[in-house]
Specification:
Elements lengths: L1 E5 L4 E5 L5 H5 L7 E5 L3 H9 L13 E7 L3 H15 L11 E3 L5
Parallel strand pairs: 2-5, 3-4
Antiparallel strand pairs: 1-2, 1-4
Length: 106
């Protein structure tokens, strides 16, 4: 599962199909990708809590992909919700969005 977080155009999309065309369209050179596995969940959550991943309008920090590889899909979705709850405290633009499944995958 992958999740795409966009800050300037606030939205978070969940992608369950690695072949989704939206995943390829939103890749850019030097794209920020945060890998999450069962063994790295705590570390990654602490990185978000400690503001390691910043967001802004500059192309280097305007979006981020979460590459989530955990045992349970619902657990992966819950991780996105928790990360969203953490980052929206600082980045209020993200307050008005909910993580939603990619429309292209239906």
């Amino acid at each position: 599962m992958k999740a795409y977080i966009n800050y300037p155009d606030p939205h978070i999309t969940l992608h369950f199909d690695d072949n989704c065309s939206e995943i390829q369209k939103r890749r850019k050179p030097d794209q920020r990708v945060v890998a999450i596995t069962d063994s790295t969940v705590r570390e990654v959550l602490m990185d978000f809590i400690n503001d390691k991943y910043r967001f802004g309008s500059d192309s280097e920090i305007n979006d981020l992909w979460l590459d989530i590889n955990v045992d349970n899909q619902k657990y992966g979705e819950a991780l996105v919700i928790v990360i969203h709850a953490v980052i929206r405290q600082k980045y209020t633009r993200l307050n008005r969005v909910l993580p939603l499944p990619c429309e292209k995958e239906h």
